[in-house]
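Researcher: Please predict.
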Amino acid sequence: MTHTDLLARLADLPGVERVADGANGIRADAPFLDVDALADALPALGLRLGTITGIPLGPDGETAIIYHFVAHDRIVDVATVTRNNAIASLAPRLRPASWAEREIHDLFDVDFLGHPNLAPLMRPEGYATGMMRAPMCAARRPAPPSNPE
């Protein structure tokens, strides 16, 4: 697929508002991304998932989700935003998405709809889901172990 074709196909994905070609790769801004349509398009686009980034947009607000894809010679980022702090999961159709989605769930309490297993992946025992959503404070941290001596 040519570079121009890739840009055009990304622009045609449901929910994509803008595609920009920059020095660091391609970025598609898709505030209303249809995650299932993205999953359907990945094989034809020749993209594989590198990772997923979550960025909280406020203590009780939404979360920016950025899917980082790689091709032979391209980096493609597709950026979207949760709605009611939820978004469709890629994991049922794209297994490598599972752990990244679980991590974002642990840290920012994003509900990945349809994820097969949102069990804690990296959240320490005693910490609430979404532990990075609000500023860390003593009330959210588990008590340190007492010294038996």
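Model: The CA atoms of residues 15 and 32 lie 4 Å apart.
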